[in-house]
Inverse folding.
């Protein structure tokens, strides 16, 4: 859906219905774990459930909208009901301008993505922007193929991640790494993502698990959460068909309720909806939000 500059940003198909879902969900649970009681008196309670306390959005999903108007896009995101965003560029707006818009529409921005060159050569500027926008995490979203050319290269990257993490910690930030499918593929007998997890320090490096790409690459998020507890502070919530196509959250087969049931084990704190190539970005993020806002998560 294209955003019409002559109409309020909140005018999106099904928007009132999405807000109703969000409001009803919040009223029913108030962010707490509530038991579902069986109807008959004296019956055993069913397992308790909870809702996600807040749902975030990776703004790469709406990059076409951001290129037209950052302000209108952030207004739309907030209207839908999102409370957090993760940046992937400021689209020619200054950090101060973006910070003012975030404050006005009631969004927080706990994380942003930066390429490896920024961590190597532009860290000071990135840290200054992070302070202005209230970021807590600076996330490396991908690696050039050359950095994954051999097991030795992968180990060197892990060492460099520790160094990035140390620099982030020194200024009150956290360094994170976001996976794609390629880090799940064997290289010289080793799986790069496991090497990164095994050879980085938990107090220096956290991970943003992309659920679509992990599963697409043959990994099981629950197995990683069990093997590396507390290492995954952030995640990208994106859905997948049995054939491997990326779809809106709720339109695929990924069992988000089961995965998020292990959030405490994983260390998850932030959940960012993402779709790399949505047909209609505004409608996609509205539909994905509606699904997550109503999701029953076992606890």
């Amino acid at each position: 859906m294209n955003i019409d500059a002559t109409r309020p940003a909140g005018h999106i198909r099904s928007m009132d219905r999405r807000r109703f879902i969000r409001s009803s969900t919040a009223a029913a649970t108030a962010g707490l774990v509530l038991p579902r009681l069986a109807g008959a008196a004296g019956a055993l309670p069913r397992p308790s459930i909870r809702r996600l306390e807040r749902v975030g959005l990776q703004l790469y999903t709406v990059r076409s909208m951001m290129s037209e108007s950052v302000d209108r896009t952030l207004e739309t995101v907030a209207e839908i009901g999102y409370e957090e965003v993760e940046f992937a560029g400021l689209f020619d707006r200054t950090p101060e301008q973006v910070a003012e818009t975030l404050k006005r529409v009631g969004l927080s921005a706990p994380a942003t993505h930066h390429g490896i060159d920024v961590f190597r050569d532009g860290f000071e500027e990135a840290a200054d922007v992070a302070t202005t926008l209230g970021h807590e995490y600076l996330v490396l979203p991908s690696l050039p193929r050359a950095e994954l050319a051999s097991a030795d290269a992968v180990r060197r990257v892990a060492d460099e991640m520790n160094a990035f993490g140390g620099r982030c910690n020194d200024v009150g930030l956290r360094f994170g790494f976001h996976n794609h499918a390629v880090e799940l593929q064997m290289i010289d007998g080793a799986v790069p993502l496991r090497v990164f997890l095994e050879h980085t320090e938990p107090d220096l490096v956290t991970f943003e698990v992309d659920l679509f790409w992990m599963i697409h690459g043959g990994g099981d998020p629950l197995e990683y959460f069990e093997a590396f507890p507390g290492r995954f502070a952030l995640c990208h919530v994106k859905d997948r068909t049995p054939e491997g196509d990326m779809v809106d959250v709720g339109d695929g087969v990924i069992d988000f309720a089961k995965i998020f049931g292990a959030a405490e084990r994983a260390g998850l704190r932030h959940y960012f909806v993402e779709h790399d190539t949505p047909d209609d970005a505004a409608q996609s993020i509205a539909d994905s939000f509606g699904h997550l806002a109503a999701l029953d998560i076992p606890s």
User: Anything to note?
Assistant: The two ends are 36 Å apart (CA to CA). The first helix runs from residue 15 to 29. The longest strand covers residues 108-113.
